[in-house]
Design a protein that fits this description.
The chain is of the alpha/beta class and about 160 residues long. It has helices at about 15-30, 80-85, 135-140, 150-155, and strands at about 5-10, 40, 100, 110-115, 125-130. The chain is about 25% helix and about 20% strand. The chain is globular, with a radius of gyration of 15 Å.
Length: about 160
């Protein structure tokens, strides 16, 4: 049974739906549990995955997406993304600390995986690292383990290309 919530994925660049579909499919194919790990975020929370009381986990966005999809996050900042995550209603089932960002590197099949530093008084992005999208789900799936990600973070910090 899948119990981990999906991870929000924010397209900060205007990307064709064919590219987005390819990225979502590669991420699913790279998963060892055959799950849609990424939720392609929209500005409102109505279309976001919602928790089911005592039910299995809720998958993210399945490809193919609507041909008319256009990201409302194009041109937005990481601060805008963090606000979306920190303001989400409690029943919205996406991870609250880790998320993905698609910038200009997305056309090369890469995603920036970012972590929120949720320390008070204000949440902010602690770090981002760049991964091949097909590796992203394995990486995110290992976050609950006792693996030490510090080396990856220290040697692979990524500045978004937007």
């Amino acid at each position: 049974m899948f119990t981990v919530p999906p991870f929000a994925l924010f397209a900060l660049e205007d990307l064709p739906t064919s590219t987005l579909n390819s990225l979502l499919e590669k991420a699913k194919d790279g998963s060892t549990v055959d799950v849609w790990w990424w939720y392609l975020a929209k500005p409102d929370y109505r279309s976001a995955p919602h928790r089911k009381p005592d039910g299995p986990g809720v998958p993210g966005t399945a490809a193919p997406i609507e041909p008319s999809f256009s990201s409302a996050f194009v041109g937005k900042s990481l601060e805008d993304v963090v606000q979306w995550l920190t303001r989400k209603p409690k029943d919205v089932s996406v991870d609250s600390r880790f998320f993905g960002v698609l910038d200009k590197k997305a056309v090369d099949g890469k995603v920036a995986i970012c972590r929120i530093n949720d320390m008070e008084p204000q949440a902010e992005v602690a770090w981002c690292i760049l991964k091949k999208v097909e590796e992203s789900t394995l990486y995110l799936g290992g976050l609950d383990s006792n693996l030490d990600w510090n080396e990856d973070v220290e040697h692979g910090k990524y500045i978004l290309d937007i």
